[in-house]
Design goal:
six-stranded antiparallel β-barrel, four-stranded antiparallel β-sheet, 22 helices, 41% helix, binds zinc ion
Amino acid sequence: MLRHSKRGVPIYEILRPGEKIYVCSALGHLYSVDQKQGVARRAYPVWDLTWKPRYQTEKRQERLQTWIEQIRRISQDADCFVNACDYDIEGSVIGAMVLKYACDGADQSAKRMKFSTLTRKELQEAYANSSAGLDFPLVNAGMCRHEVDWMYGINLSRLLTDSAREYGKVYSTLSAGRVQGPTLRFVVDREEEINCFVPVPYWTIETVIRVDDSTIEARYEKEKIDSKYEADKIVADCKGESGTIVDSESHRSKIYPPHPFDLPALQAEAYRHFGLRPSSTLGIAERLYLDALISYPRTSSQKLPPSIECRKILENLSTLEEYTTKISRILSQPTLSPNEGQRSDPAHPAIHPTGNIPRRGMESREHKVYDLIVRRFIATFGEPALRQSEKATVSAKGYSFYLKGIRILTKGWIDLYEPYADFEEIHLPPLTVGQDVDITRIVRRDRFTEPPSRLNPSSLLKLMERQNIGTKATRAGIIDTLYDRGYVAGERMTPTPLAFNVIDVLRKYCPKISETSFTRELEEMMQDIESGKEQRELVLIEAIEHLRPVMAELQAKISEVGAELGETIRETRLEQITLLSPCPRCSSKLIVVRNRQTGKRFIGCAGRWKKGCTFSLPLPQIGGLTLLRKPCTKCGFELIMVKAKGRRPMISCQMCFMEKRQGQAV
Ligand SMILES: [Zn+2]
Ligand SMILES: [Zn+2]
């Protein structure tokens, strides 16, 4: 194989008997949706769209022009074209657009390669078995999604941004979109639920019982007691008393191995064990896929068809020391069949290792995700685990208490999936009916019902999946946008005042945008294009007809919308630059400000104008500044963090810094 590099664009040349193949890459999308020529950049509403080279529609994409030129140059002499982009909606669109626009309409005659891993063997087979004609249902479904999303995003975002500028007198880029709206609404709705939550008191009983020489925590028959009086009576009646075991039972059950990973399951598991955001997990999985270490990750399949030759993969992986023993156990089993789940995917199997051995050293997070995928793959072939649950009932003074135990009798697949399988065991001593026991401790606990917990990126992703909004390819990115736009903060996602306001505005003036039902409806129509039951043009028209009245309504009330948004944006900004610690001299608020003449930033006192307070603290001038909302352990003043490009973030207390400097001066 030869590698040419023309003006920075790599092109590979493969010679085969009777043919010469050129392979060129696309660098993601080379074409994207944009408004037609002659429409002003900030105008709205816009309904006419077209596909254009991305270097014309986005900033800093100039090199894509050279890319397209080189593809065009090499396409001139070609007499056969194959789209070999990732086999999924995006890959189908990327390839089709390049063939259509850069290769003079070659999309009409091109073939399509279909593959799930980048191993040499599979790529060669996929090339030999390329299908005649592109996968147009997938292409159309993908184009339609880009077109509809562009239409919603551009119109709503332009209108909101413009309203805030014209009527709210603040410049801030606001965004709203077809999927983003409902997603943000999940977070806001949850926060409202939490805010409206009224805690209700209840009581529980904590009991410790001694059986022979062991002490065991016991559960009172009722988990929640509604009256304090009742709880106190139980404690008074049973304190220091003894009881009798009146019943003891146990039963065995099988715990089946986990299903092979689809993308959401991988994302959830990586979040649970490593705290990785869904988008990070996807990014890492994609790198592993590009290295031909795992199969294509954007899949919703929980199945491993025989064609992927699991035995061979396991044999290859067993050369890696850490998996050798586990794999030899699997291979010695009489049969080798994975515990497949219900979900399937027309294009790809479940995520699995290819059996290729990692050649390069992996970065720590890559290694974690790879290890998780390998162990999950191995575990899914394991034998069921056997669990025994035991329950004994103690009767004392007419009350019942339960002793509960769990034992894993046979570990089966649990052993294979360690350290990612965690099953708690509680061992009970031997118990016999009629045996006397002592209550060694019994106390009342005062409790309150708890509000629902905040969403985190992983649970939000699952919620989007359950509600069928977005796709497995786009969900993680949309969650990131919520953070980037300042709509949510924190790992436990808390909506900012701006998020409440945007949702309020959308709810008030165009409820359809933030409603899940409408988004889901469109989603279903787009899935119908994929299966050939719906036409792309008709879905686009339908989407426009939904959006048109919404835009009209928003425009009619644009001054109110803008005023409301402007107010919140100003408040949010002021809050962002105000320190939690007050001025030590006059106790007014301290704010991060800039000197008008020098442009230098510093911490100044808001009491300057009214009280003439001149207190100030210096700040580092280079790097992004964050108020940490955490006190200094020495003096209690709010800590700041400065992050300059290419450097480690620096956390400091400016109050301690000043005192040290003054101390040195004296
Ligand atoms: Zn002051
Ligand atoms: Zn300090």
